């Protein structure tokens, strides 16, 4: 949808003729629609609010015919394949508006009974109501006052369909973009977005793109979302890199027999699988729902159950499994260093049940509770507006990170004590211990404590997304590609492969020699007989 401008002429019918208002009567100005009494203004602007917010979307404007009724009662909405003889404002079942803003509620159908394909968002009525209330407030507090005072400004106070503009002198007038224009897509105005309207000596700008007949407001600035695009690009690149390196790492830890059943490498393998699944889901959901021209973007707009399920798996379940397996790594390493015991036959079944099962139970409860208490939002990509519901995910995550930070400190203390107890160790061993502790930071996920509070700064958000996306990349290098045990197993496998290849070549050579010898020793056939 292109919000660069809002020409009211995009409605199928031409604007309603201005209503003649007595000079002593209160009047509110609606750009391109003239002056109207407050009650008629409320009804007309509320219908246009719904039109501008929702009916300009491609999946609606290509399926429905819309028109503003001349009596300002509401907006006419008909399926495009409907017989146009019945698509008139006289058919009140097809005229919609919010009853509390309509001129005559008996002459319209309440907007909450409107059934479109695809369905409107659950909260669409509240979004429209915000816009209608803003128009009413503009009328009572700005437009009426202007109507009854002498003002030499060339541009009169007006409501443009989304925003309220006071009377202005020549120049560019800038207004902050209201949240309701985004249709509930959770785009916030804290990005300092603004719309622009040009005031000239003869009045509000009538650009050539509107045929020089209609006032124009530039809303292109409201749709600039460079920070979100940069964050999405950073996420796509970093998670792609992590997935590329995680796939071989998971394969190696599962394929190398000497380490396949070692408890530490079982933990490593499951942590890598968790990171891999999160990366795959991130790339899948971004491709299906988020990027430009995503095939299922309409489901996000509808808050469809399918995308809610996918985003819940990605943003809640797999995120919790990441934290649980990082916690398992920290707990096992601390237990190993503290007790100095290593159980070769340990199957890690309890770790598997807890680290995969507990996040699943928490996510299921979250899905049910949020569905009952906060079943709105665009596929639950954003956090719930009910704080305690979202803390069902926040609390376990913060607890895991806090415990990991504590265990990391204890691991460093244990390493230092062990080194001090051995006077024969060189100073370089201390540096190795400190370096090893720093390498544990991405494995334990402690670095996420630094980005737990997200600032609105673009560079900060891109850095935060990049660190999250590259965690799988760093973990795969630490626990697999640079791990001494993995490297030794690969070297042994390669040497064994080389020996088998050499032995096979030697066997083939010997067999070839033997076959050649048999041919030499074989007697030639007797072809002639000697006669005496």
UniProtKB/TrEMBL annotation:
Gene3D superfamilies noted in UniProt: GPCR, family 2, extracellular hormone receptor domain (4.10.1240.10), Rhodopsin 7-helix transmembrane proteins (1.20.1070.10)
Recorded superkingdom: Eukaryota
A Gene Ontology term for the protein's cellular component: plasma membrane
PROSITE patterns: G_PROTEIN_RECEP_F2_1, G_PROTEIN_RECEP_F2_2, G_PROTEIN_RECEP_F2_3, G_PROTEIN_RECEP_F2_4
Record membrane topology: Multi-pass membrane protein
Predominant place of localization: membrane
GO biological process terms held by the UniProt record: adenylate cyclase-modulating G protein-coupled receptor signaling pathway; cell surface receptor signaling pathway
Molecular-function GO terms, alphabetical: G protein-coupled peptide receptor activity
Intracellular or extracellular location(s): Cell membrane
Keyword Zinc-finger set for record: no
Alphabetic keyword roster: Cell membrane, G-protein coupled receptor, Glycoprotein, Membrane, Receptor, Transducer, Transmembrane, Transmembrane helix
Listed transmembrane segments: 232-256, 276-297, 317-338, 350-369, 389-416, 437-456
Alphabetized SUPFAM superfamilies for the sequence: Family A G protein-coupled receptor-like, Hormone receptor domain
Entry annotated with the keyword ATP-binding: no
Chain ranges of the G-protein coupled receptors family 2 profile domain: 138-226, 231-483
PANTHER family referenced in this protein's UniProt entry, alphabetically: G-PROTEIN COUPLED RECEPTOR SEB-2 (PTHR45620:SF42), PDF RECEPTOR-LIKE PROTEIN-RELATED (PTHR45620)
Protein family membership: Belongs to the G-protein coupled receptor 2 family.
Name of protein: G-protein coupled receptors family 2 profile 2 domain-containing protein
């Amino acid at each position: 949808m292109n919000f660069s401008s809002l020409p009211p002429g995009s409605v199928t019918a031409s604007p309603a003729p201005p209503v003649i208002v007595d000079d002593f009567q209160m009047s509110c100005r609606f750009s391109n629609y003239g002056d109207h009494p407050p009650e008629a203004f409320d009804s007309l602007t509320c219908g246009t609010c719904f039109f501008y917010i929702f009916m300009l979307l491609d999946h609606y404007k290509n399926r429905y015919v819309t028109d503003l009724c001349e009596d300002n009662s509401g907006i006419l909405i008909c399926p495009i394949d409907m017989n146009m003889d019945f698509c008139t404002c006289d058919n009140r079942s097809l005229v919609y508006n919010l009853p509390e803003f309509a001129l005559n509620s008996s002459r319209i159908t309440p907007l909450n009974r409107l059934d479109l394909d695809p369905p409107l968002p659950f909260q669409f009525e509240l979004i429209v109501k915000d816009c209608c209330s803003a128009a009413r407030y503009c009328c009572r507090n700005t437009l009426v006052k202007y109507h009854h005072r002498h003002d030499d400004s060339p541009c009169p106070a007006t409501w443009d369909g989304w925003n309220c503009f006071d009377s202005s002198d020549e120049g560019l007038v800038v207004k902050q973009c209201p949240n309701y224009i985004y249709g509930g897509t959770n785009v916030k105005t804290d990005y300092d977005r603004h719309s622009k309207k040009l005031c000239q000596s003869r009045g509000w700008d009538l650009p050539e793109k509107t045929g020089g007949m209609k006032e124009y407001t530039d809303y292109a600035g409201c749709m600039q979302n460079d920070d979100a695009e940069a964050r999405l690009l950073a996420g796509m690149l970093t998670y792609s890199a992590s997935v590329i390196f995680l796939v071989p790492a998971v394969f190696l830890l599962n394929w190398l027999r000497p380490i396949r059943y070692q408890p530490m490498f079982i933990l490593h393998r499951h942590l890598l699988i968790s990171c891999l699944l999160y990366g795959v889901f991130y790339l899948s959901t971004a491709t299906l729902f988020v990027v430009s021209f995503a095939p299922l973007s309409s489901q996000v707009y509808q808050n469809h159950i399918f995308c809610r399920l996918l985003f819940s798996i990605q943003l809640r379940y797999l995120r919790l499994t990441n934290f649980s397996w990082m916690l398992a790594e920290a707990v096992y390493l601390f237990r190993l260093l503290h007790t100095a015991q290593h159980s070769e036959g340990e199957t890690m079944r309890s770790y598997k049940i807890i680290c995969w099962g507990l996040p699943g139970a928490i996510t299921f409860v979250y899905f049910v509770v949020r569905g009952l208490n906060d079943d709105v939002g665009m596929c639950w990509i954003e956090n719930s507006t009910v704080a305690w519901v979202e803390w069902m995910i926040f609390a376990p995550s913060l607890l895991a990170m806090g415990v990991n930070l504590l265990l990391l400190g204890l691991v460093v203390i244990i390493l230092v004590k062990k080194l001090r107890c051995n006077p024969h160790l060189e100073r370089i061993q201390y540096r190795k211990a400190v370096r090893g502790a720093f390498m544990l930071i991405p494995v334990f996920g402690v670095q996420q404590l630094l980005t737990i509070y997200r600032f609105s700064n673009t560079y900060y958000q891109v850095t935060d997304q990049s660190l999250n996306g590259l965690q799988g990349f760093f973990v795969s290098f630490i626990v697999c590609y640079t791990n001494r045990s993995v490297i030794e197993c690969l070297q042994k496998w390669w040497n064994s492969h080389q020996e088998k290849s050499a032995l096979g070549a030697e066997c083939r050579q010997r067999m070839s020699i033997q076959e050649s010898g048999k041919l030499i020793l074989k007697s030639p056939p007797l072809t002639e007989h000697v006669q005496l």
